[in-house]
């Protein structure tokens, strides 16, 4: 009998605001399939803090912790009401990079045992290795979830991303995807190409745009299909090179960006072409199937005060993966999977990055540099927002010092 893994995925660009609004959480999780026995609930966020807060990684960690508790509280309430059968939930993992956050929650195991191995990684795509853009990754490997045991260990790869913004940067966005995937595989997982063998969810504010000039922002099903098939960047990428075999479920909802702040469904089309920036991608592989009749993809209406304060629209997806009975996995060379890859697959081993001095030294240096840059970006924005006169005075001192050094 095949193993089944069911997940709920949500992506929301918070518009640089902290999400602590129970009605918004309730509205998002109301899109869960009532009949689905979920193994994981995955919540991805972009711009979950302001730029002025980005220089303090402890701050976003604290905010994600509070948000995790709120999500668990609302999930417990939802399942108590919907099923008249209280279910406990627990936090499996969080990860973050810059203003990008990832939270993974699961129903509590009936045995109380946690058989999940976890690895967390980040890849920076912002200018000068900043965390303004990039991807935050969590890899799960488990033998069981809640009351379900799997015949073999199952791995799930989750990447929430915020890619390069603005029209005209299609190539840079595709380069961001490839940098994130290549660095995770080649530099941080010792060359293990996880996306060839295991479910990989790549989602978030991917920022791909439509290329056509829009005069009518009313989107019928026929218009949605026509624009997506002929005038949309990510569809072009998925139907083209697409080296990681990503695809997505059918889109039947209007563009998710750019909305007028404070509006329910009004696009700011005079400045930005309405686009499907917020997306949830999954990979193709011969080792698992997506059960289409149990999977879904939809946007979440902007009918809470918080959701109307962001110019994006939340998207959610239910994904049901069925794993092949044949668990033998060939490597890219056509032989059996390597011992190192088997170690990564095994939940009995801790998922650790095996030290490669040259690669790790470069990664460590980039991370230190990126963290330092994030600190100065955050502190500079904080000064600009809260104490503009201090920022101008610091700039004046720097310019004066450089000028003095140059002249004398």
Classify the fold: give the CATH topology.
Answer: Deoxyribonuclease I, Chain A
Q: Can you write the helix and strand succession as a string?
A: EHEHEEEEEHEHHEEEEEHHH
Radius of gyration: 22 Å
Classified by CATH, the class is Alpha Beta
Percent of residues in β-strands = 15-25%
The overall strand count is 13
Q: Low-confidence stretches at least 5 residues in length (pLDDT < 50)? A: 327-338, 344-362
CATH superfamily membership? Endonuclease/exonuclease/phosphatase
How far do the termini sit from each other?
81 Å
Helix content: 25-40%
- Structural class label: alpha+beta
Q: Tell me what the CATH architecture is.
A: 4-Layer Sandwich
Largest sheet: 7 strands, mixed
Described by the principal axes of the CA atoms, the overall outline is globular
Structural domains: how many: 1
Count of helical regions? 8
Mean pLDDT: 83
Mind sketching the topology for me?
Layout: E1 3-13, H1 22-29, E2 40-46, H2 57-83, E3 89-97, E4 100-107, E5 117-124, E6 134-145, E7 148-162, H3 170-188, E8 200-205, H4 221-230, H5 233-238, E9 246-247, E10 278-283, E11 288-290, E12 296-299, E13 315-323, H6 339-345, H7 357-386, H8 388-407
Parallel strand pairs: 1-2, 7-8
Antiparallel strand pairs: 1-13, 2-4, 3-4, 5-6, 6-7, 8-10, 9-10, 11-13, 12-13
């Amino acid at each position: 009998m095949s193993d089944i893994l069911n997940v709920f995925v949500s992506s929301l660009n918070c518009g640089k605001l902290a999400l602590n609004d129970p009605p918004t959480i309730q509205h998002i999780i109301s899109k869960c399939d009532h009949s689905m026995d979920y193994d994981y609930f995955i919540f991805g966020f972009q711009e979950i803090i302001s730029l002025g807060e980005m220089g303090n990684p402890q701050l976003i960690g604290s905010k994600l912790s509070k948000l995790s508790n709120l999500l668990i509280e609302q999930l417990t309430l939802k399942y108590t009401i919907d099923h008249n059968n209280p279910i406990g939930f627990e936090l499996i993992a969080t990860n973050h990079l810059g203003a990008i956050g990832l939270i993974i929650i699961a129903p509590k195991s009936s045995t109380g045992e946690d058989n999940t191995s976890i690895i967390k990684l980040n890849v920076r795509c912002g200018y000068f290795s900043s965390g303004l853009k990039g991807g935050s990754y969590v890899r799960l490997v488990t033998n069981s979830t809640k009351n379900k045991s799997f015949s073999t260990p199952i791995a799930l790869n989750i990447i929430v991303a915020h890619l390069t913004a603005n029209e005209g940067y299609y190539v840079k966005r595709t380069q961001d995807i490839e940098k994130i995937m290549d660095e995770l595989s080649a530099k941080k997982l010792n060359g293990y190409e996880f996306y060839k063998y295991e479910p990989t969810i790549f989602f978030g504010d991917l920022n791909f745009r439509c290329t056509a000039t829009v005069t009518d922002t009313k989107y019928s099903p026929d218009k949605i299909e026509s624009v997506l098939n002929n005038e949309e960047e990510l569809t072009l990428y998925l139907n083209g090179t697409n080296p990681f075999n990503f695809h997505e479920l059918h889109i039947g909802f209007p563009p998710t960006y750019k909305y007028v702040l404070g509006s329910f469904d009004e696009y700011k089309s005079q400045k930005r072409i309405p686009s499907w920036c917020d997306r949830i991608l999954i990979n193709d592989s011969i080792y698992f199937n997506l059960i289409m009749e149990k999977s879904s993809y939809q946007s979440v209406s902007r009918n809470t005060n918080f959701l109307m304060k962001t110019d994006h629209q939340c998207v959610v997806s239910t994904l049901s993966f069925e794993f092949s009975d044949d668990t033998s996995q060939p490597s890219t060379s056509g032989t059996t999977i390597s011992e190192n890859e088997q170690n990564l697959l095994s939940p009995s081993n801790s998922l650790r990055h095996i030290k490669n001095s040259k690669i790790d030294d470069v990664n460590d240096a980039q991370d230190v540099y990126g963290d330092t840059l994030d600190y100065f970006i955050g502190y500079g924005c904080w000064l600009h927002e809260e104490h503009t006169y201090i920022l101008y005075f610091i700039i004046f001192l720097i310019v004066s010092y450089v000028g003095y050094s140059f002249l004398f």
